[in-house]
Design brief:
Order of helices and strands: HHHHHHHHHHHHHHH
Helix content: 55-70%
Largest sheet: none
CATH architecture of the largest domain: Orthogonal Bundle
CATH superfamily of the largest domain: MazG-like
Number of domains: 3
Number of strands: 0
Length: 324
Amino acid sequence: MRGLSDAPSPRRSLSARTRAMTKPDTSSAADALQRLLEIMAALRTPGTGCPWDLEQTFETIAPYTIEEAYEVADAIFRRDLADLKDELGDLLLQVVYHARIAEEAGAFQFADVAEAVNAKMIRRHPHVFGSPEERAAGAQPDFWRRIKAEERASKAAERARLSSGSQTMPSAHGSQLLSDVPVGLPSLTRAIKLQDKAAKVGFDWPDLAPVFAKMREEIAELEEVAFANAASDSPASSGRLPEGESGEAIEEELGDMLFVMANIARHLKLDPEMALRKANDKFTRRFAYIEQRLATMGKTPDQSSLEEMDALWDEIRAQDKRRR
């Protein structure tokens, strides 16, 4: 896995001091973390640091942060603890990277990040870290919501301090209730969180039946606009979305259908990202079977007909059913 500081650069050599910092030893976690902070500082030092690392900003690093989080989840899903150790390190590097950029801007330091989460964990667990009375009382009903409301108020004050009067963009199109659902989340995950927020104030279907009815409605609407554009410039014939209003209509209806599918997953208490991940893995495994069977015939998929590949797909699908 290639990390951020592995990007190609004409000046990738580190100073002798920095190279010494990269040597593994049996130091404490605090020492190891301090060494990582020093390495990042060296990479971001003008004149002697890495030109590629020096060019990076919050915005350019953010996609890597998302990618590393996914790779952590992938290692967990594969139960590969050796990979998990490396991927957690890559994810930690993202935190250190963002904290360093913030420190250079005079906003906050890594220690502030760590102290903020320390304080949050203590604050959110009064039944563990609180007074003897709070610990004896245990986790009280609705305490989590109350604490998070207090945190939102505190964060608003902190945001105002950090912005220093600069203009900020409204979030979630002005919705106060939904404003703290991050825009950068994977879309299916964000859909679930948006729906959960709305459901907490009663904006939700009471059970699955009307959600499935809504799904059928959205599928019908998508089908209608898709077939209405089944001319020479349709997605099926051209391989691309039609331009103009027709393309926007298809995209909108597809989005509506996916949003309802996320709602079905929420009502079933399933993670749609995990469900789709498993479906992707199943498709990959079954297509590998097609490739292997075709190879025994001396053929590749692009040398085979759809009928041949469909027949092999039915074979592996039948085998999967027998294994259930």
